[in-house]
Amino acid sequence: MAKALRVDPRDSVATLLDDAQAGAVVTVGDSELTLSDDIGRGHKVALASIAAGDPLLKYGYPIGTATQAIAAGAHVHSHNLKTALEGTLAYRFDPVDTVAAPRASAATFEGYVRADGSVGTRNEIWILSTVGCVARTAERIAAKAAALVGDAVDGVHAFTHPHGCSQLGQDLEGTRTIIASLACHPNAGGVLIVGLGCEENQIKALLATIPTARRPLIRTLTTQASGDEIAEGCALVAELAPLARAPRQTVGLDTLVLGVKCGGSDGLSGLTANPLVGRMSDQVTAAGGRVLVTEIPEIFGAEQMLMNRAASGGVFDRIVDVVNDFKRYFLDHGETVSENPSPGNVAGGITTLEEKSLGAVQKAGRAAVADVIGYGARIRVDGLTLLEAPGNDAVSSTALAAAGATAILFTTGRGTPLGFPVPTIKIASNTDLAKRKPGWIDFDAGAVLEDGFAATEAALLARILQVASGAETAAERNGEREIAIWKRGVTL
C-alpha cells in the first residue's frame, strides 16, 4: 500500500512517498485515502474537499490558493493551485523561541588552523582571475603548477569567470568583492591572483580590499607585463607552496562554517533532506560554530518565519530590507516575485514558490538569525547568518564560499554534478536518486523515511566530519570545482 506524509495536523494536502495510480488506497498516518488521480512521488493529494479560492496548507502554512474545486483524493498541482505572492510587504516583528543556547559538542574533525584563528577543511593553492580574458591562462597555470608542488598542499585549483571587464559601479564592485573574499578563504593556504592589465577590475584596487595580514600568502601576476606568464605563474605558485604547507589538527565542531543550499528540489526535499540539514545547522550553531543560509528569492512566502527568529530588532530590520530589496530587483526588471519554481521543481511535485520556500527555509534549522550580510561579504559572527544572494545554484554557492563556508551541504531531489571551491556534500532527498547517481550524490536523506531522523542525522554528521577531515566529495572526485558571479549591471 502506498504512503503519503502529512507534515502538520493543519495541512490540507499530503505528499506521496511513492508513485500511485487512481483507485489506489494510500495511508496517511492512521488514516486511509483513495486516490482519484494518478499521482507521482513527491506530488500532493487533497486530504479533504477544497473550495475554489480557498488557501491550501502544507507545513502548517498556506502554499497558494485553489483555482477550482478540488475533491478529496485528487492530485493538487499547477492545474488547480496558484501562488498568492505579490510584491513588497510591510512586516511585523513577532519573536519566537529558538533552539537552546550553545552547548559543548564532542564532535571533532581534522582541520587546518590559520593564523587568524579560522579553520580550513582543505589546504590548497587557489588561482583567481580578475577578468575573463585570463581565465584559460589561470587554468593552464594551475594544471602545470599542480605537478610542480606535488603533495605540499591538497591541490592547486583555478577559479575563473567571464567578468571583470566592461563593468561599472555596483556590478564591478560585486565581482571585485567576491574575488577578494575568496582570496581570504581559510581553505586557501596560498593565493595567486592573475590579471590581464587593462581591465576595470584592477589588481591594485582588489588588493586594497584584502586585510594586510593576509597579503603575505598572496602573489599577483599581470600577464600583459610578463614575458612568459605560464612560467612566471608556475614559479609564483612554487613560491607559495612552502608557505602554505601545514598539518591537520584536531578541532571542534565550533570551528566549522557550514553553507546550506538546495538545488533541483522535489516534493520530498522539504520532508527529508532540508529538515535533516536543518538539524545539522542546529548542531553546528549550538556548538558555537557558524552557518550561512542564502537564496533570498527562495524564502519568499516563508520569510516571516526567519524574520521572527531575528536575534534583535536591528537584525529583523535588515532581513526585511534584504527581502524587499530583492523583490524590488525582480519588479524593476518586469518580473513577478513568484517567478519560481523551476521546471525541474514542478516535475518533482513543487507547485508554488510558497511551497518551495517553506521547504527550503528548513535548512536553517531553528536557531536565531544572528546577522545579515551583503553579497560578497565575509561572515563575522557565530551562529546563523543570512547572506544576500540569488537562488541560482552556482552564484549562491560561490557567495557561500566567499563568505567563509568551509563546507557546503547541498540538498537535491533531481541531482546535479556541480561543485564549488569548498567541499560540497550532495544530499539526495530520495533514495532512488542516491542509487541512480552515486557519482553525484554523497548522502541519501531518503533514509529518513525508513530509519527516522535521529539515526540519519548521526550518519550525516559522521559524513560531514569525514569530509571536513579530508575525505573527498563526489564533486571533488569528478573535478567539479567552479565559481559563478552575480552579474547585475550594464555591460559596456
From TrEMBL:
Entry keyword set: Lyase
KW Lyase (keyword) present: yes
InterPro entries recorded: GD_AH_C, GD_AH_second, SAF, SAF_UxaA/GarD, UxaA_altronate/galactarate_dh
Domain SAF span(s) in chain numbering: 11-82
Pfam families per the UniProt record, alphabetical: GD_AH_C (PF20629), GD_AH_second (PF04295), SAF (PF08666)
Entry similarity comment: Belongs to the UxaA family.
Biological process terms in GO annotation: D-galacturonate catabolic process
The keyword Transferase belongs to this UniProt entry's keyword annotation: no
GO molecular function list: lyase activity
Record's protein name: D-altronate dehydratase
TM stretches of this protein: none
